């Protein structure tokens, strides 16, 4: 599968999150502890929001492994952002190519995914024809992850992210069941619009891939007053990660099964995530 990080809060150099923690995403690209594969070397990507004067987030992706990419290290040590995504890929049947690396971008929106649509090759056509014809030409790659993004866009992501992702998940599951696939969907997803981050953990069989969120910064400061990083960031700073970045006691909490969280200044919240398999598809 894959590993990913979503960061929201005080603008920091990307390197402080991607390289410096003891079990950083770069370390996880070689030594994942909780992923299906130990090594995630089928490409990487980072996406970040600069400021409001820039219409879209920046995205850098490559097919090489993250652990020895000089360009990634160069960018990470010079780019500062208050909202960014990072993803390392372990391919699940589609080609190792730049257009298949996460995160995916459409306008102001970023999307990344860990998991898979089971028997995707059987379901791909039925899923693809449901994408809004106006959006379809913007699909660049061949992954299930990008197709999930464009289905969510079709089903109203820009107006109602939780509802659109639920409609996407339900549509994938119904399509899978129609083809005899017992457990069609496995997903942890992050999506952002430049101001907020939504993170989803769900699977058809109720055994979703790992996902964690960071404890509130003010609580961590009290627990670890000597941790320099905690003194530099605001109380609103949050991370959502596929697996913890280190072993700091009290720093990480598991995202509940079949739930989604919203990260935004002053109003973080968790909600149940229950795709309605009986609901008809509603386009946005």
UniProtKB/TrEMBL annotation:
Keywords in UniProt for this one?
A: Glutamine amidotransferase, Transferase
State the name under which the record lists this protein: Class II glutamine amidotransferase
Q: Name one GO molecular function term.
A: transferase activity
Q: Which InterPro entries does the UniProt entry name for this protein?
A: EgtC-like, Gamma-glu_amide_hydrolase, GATase_2_dom, Ntn_hydrolases_N
The residue ranges of the Glutamine amidotransferase type-2 domain are 2-284
Organism of this sequence: Streptomyces aquilus
């Amino acid at each position: 599968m894959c590993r990913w990080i979503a960061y929201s809060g005080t603008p920091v150099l990307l390197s402080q999150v991607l390289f410096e923690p003891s079990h950083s995403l770069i370390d996880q690209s070689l030594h994942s502890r909780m992923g299906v594969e130990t090594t995630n070397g089928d490409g990487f990507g980072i996406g970040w929001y600069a400021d409001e004067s820039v219409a879209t987030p920046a995205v850098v992706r490559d097919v090489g492994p993250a652990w020895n990419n000089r360009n990634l290290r160069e960018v990470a040590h010079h780019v500062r952002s208050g909202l960014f995504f990072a993803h390392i890929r372990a391919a699940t049947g589609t080609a190792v190519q730049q257009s298949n690396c996460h995160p995916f971008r459409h306008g102001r929106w970023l999307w990344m995914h860990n998991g898979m649509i089971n028997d995707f090759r059987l379901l791909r056509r039925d899923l693809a024809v449901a994408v809004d014809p106006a959006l379809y030409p913007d699909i660049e790659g061949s992954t299930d992850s990008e197709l999930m993004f464009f289905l969510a866009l079709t089903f109203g992501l820009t107006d109602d992210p939780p509802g659109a992702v639920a409609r996407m998940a339900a549509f994938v599951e119904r399509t899978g069941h129609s083809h005899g696939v017992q457990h069609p969907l496995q997903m942890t997803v992050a999506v952002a619009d430049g101001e907020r981050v939504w993170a989803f953990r769900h699977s058809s069989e109720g055994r979703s891939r790992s996902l964690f969120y960071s404890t509130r910064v003010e609580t961590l400061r009290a627990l670890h007053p000597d941790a320099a990083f905690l003194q530099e960031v605001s109380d609103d700073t949050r991370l959502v990660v596929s697996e913890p970045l280190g072993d700091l006691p009290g720093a990480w909490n598991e995202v509940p099964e079949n739930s989604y969280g919203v990260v935004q200044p002053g109003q973080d919240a968790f909600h149940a995530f229950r795709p309605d398999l009986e609901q008809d598809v509603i386009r946005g």
